[in-house]
């Protein structure tokens, strides 16, 4: 029995050669000359239920096929870009969720905003969600890890998981506590996230206030807010606001103002500055005590800087117009963070050389044949190029 | 198209939510368009779209995606991959009867229950109110008369506006229908058109001036959707609770959001908004030729919208588009009571 027949017995498959081309891309900007290193999947499979994942992995193991998991492919880190011929597992059809007391148990393909919409009906709300929540999936964000709306009060997505259910070549199992670190931010290299139990908050109306504020003063003004971001004057101008360094504070307790409410209303339609021309966005996480130092240095490198305040760190997003010269500047942005005890926000395809040894060791144990999203924890052509460029900084 | 940054936010697409395969997502279609290799399957996936324009609302680089989808459909027609069978059939029917429902042209104004004289203002009922949902045409005309708006109708000299064909790549059919309508309007001395149908409203407002330029005509006719006429002229106390569905062609395409709401509120209705409203409104699933060619997808999208409407706690849904009403009524059955804005206005004025 061939692979196609084996999968088509229980899942929806896609093998149209042109349509498979689409599955080579996510939001990462790949220079044309390097596109040849991105492979076209052999097949896309869309499981209908979680048990199908176990069967898919069995078949892949039997045929020695690499696996690349895919949610909505909205990440800029290339986590779901295939670097080997592979089976793409598209999670869109596994998207059920149910509410239990103060948590939601959601399948990997569930869309964040769908969950939020339903949670609001029962007086609950997600504690944190990504700015791409209108389309991005539960599994996708957990697999990348990260911070988003609500992270000032509640931390990153990893801080808001009771447990996750993962599938690897030994089957399904529940993972919780410290063991979550092997999966959150691992881009599916150690196991595929099938389901997650995510903590909720009581729903309450969030109001937003925008104030003119220098970054050096911003941290002292966070006032136990639910969510807070800082945008420098250049970014504000590019987004169509007055060119003024601005702190946005969002909370149940603040008195909203017009600019704040406008910025809050636009929280789920990010990247507007890309309308001024293609851009490279890069994010780093920096400890609070080094954040002002970082900002002062990084603003000279980036063309615009945004800070998303989290419970335990500040995430800085640097914006650069997309050209080869600016790739060096973007890497400088990362280097400045690293010098100040910070780190790149996510590894994925582009920064796989920065993944932790602990994670690589764990992968060797659970995936000795390196079938799960290969080349995303070890150097690949993209991360090697970045590594070489980093030496010239 | 080259400005696309592959962010994927356009996957808010209601068809993609049903189909779940990337070739039906706007991002997927942009990637396919750049590659330029087409076959029957890809063309079919391109047509799995209501042209609702939600993708444009979220696109950070402001791509004119609806225009792109329409251009691609025309290109597919030029390359003989389109029109798709049902769209083609509807085109053939319309070339014969001047409406896509095989309605006899001489019966086009059968809905009218009073006589109208000559006027420079035309009430353009559109095909669906003329043949399928005559309640909308009848209510609109009665309300206009009651409000003292002098208008005429053209009966068998009213032809399909061409919207279904301009949206499905059949520009030649759209062009012919434009010419027939335009000549009839010139003969009748029409200077202003009022319509109940957002599809007609958009087509006459946006497409007719372009077609006129292409064909060397001067087009200086003012067009209004009936909600714009009613907005300041309705006052009543219906005392019901209802939700409002923004038709894509009226809202996102023509930026008319407040006028229908004003009518509803002034009619004394307790308006409960759906979670997705105004520019973020979810399509009813009928437009862009989706309902005719891909009925199941259209029904799934409509089901989702009906669920959202019912979750507001009312089963009364008001819209201001005959095509939306038709789809909601067919899919929703007895679960939901659907009214056109003109019917609400009529109830208010004649209560």
Describe the secondary structure blueprint for this structure.
The complex is a heterodimer of chains A (393) and B (351).
Chain A: H1 3-8, E1 12-14, H2 17-22, E2 43-46, H3 50-63, E3 66-70, E4 86-90, E5 97-100, E6 103-107, H4 112-121, E7 124-126, H5 138-144, H6 151-154, E8 161-168, E9 171-176, E10 192-202, E11 207-212, H7 215-218, E12 227-231, H8 233-238, E13 246-251, H9 258-265, E14 279-286, H10 288-298, E15 304-309, E16 314-321, H11 324-339, E17 343-344, H12 357-366, H13 381-391
Parallel strand pairs in A: 2-4, 3-4
Antiparallel strand pairs in A: 1-2, 5-6, 6-10, 7-10, 8-9, 8-10, 11-13, 12-13, 12-15, 14-16, 14-17, 15-16
Chain B: H1 14-19, H2 26-35, H3 40-47, H4 54-58, H5 65-78, H6 85-97, E1 121-124, H7 127-132, H8 134-146, H9 163-166, H10 171-188, E2 192-195, H11 198-215, E3 222-225, H12 226-230, E4 241-245, H13 258-266, E5 270-271, H14 290-293, H15 295-310, E6 316-319, H16 322-332, E7 337-340, H17 341-350
Parallel strand pairs in B: 1-2, 2-3, 4-5, 4-6, 6-7
What does this structure look like?
The complex is a heterodimer of chains A (393) and B (351). Chain A is α+β, with helices and mostly antiparallel strands and 393 residues long. Chain A has helices at residues 3-8, 17-22, 50-63, 112-121, 138-144, 151-154, 215-218, 233-238, 258-265, 288-298, 324-339, 357-366, 381-391, and strands spanning 12-14, 43-46, 66-70, 86-90, 97-100, 103-107, 124-126, 161-168, 171-176, 192-202, 207-212, 227-231, 246-251, 279-286, 304-309, 314-321, 343-344. Chain A has two domains: 1-204, Uridine Diphospho-n-acetylenolpyruvylglucosamine Reductase, domain 3, CATH 3.30.465.10; 207-344, FAD-linked oxidase, cap domain/gating helix (Vanillyl-alcohol Oxidase, Chain A, domain 3), CATH 3.40.462. The longest helix of chain A has 16 residues, at 324-339. Chain A is globular, with a radius of gyration of 21 Å. In chain B, helix 16 links the parallel strand 6 (316-319) and strand 7. In chain B, helix 15 (295-310) packs across helix 16. The mean pLDDT of chain B is 97. The A-B interface holds A 14, 16, 18-19, 21-23, 25-29, 44, 46, 72-74, 90, 92-93, 117, 120-121, 132, 134-135, 269-275, 278-279 and B 3, 5-12, 20-23, 27-28, 31-32, 35, 37, 39, 41-42, 45, 57-58, 60-62, 275, 311.
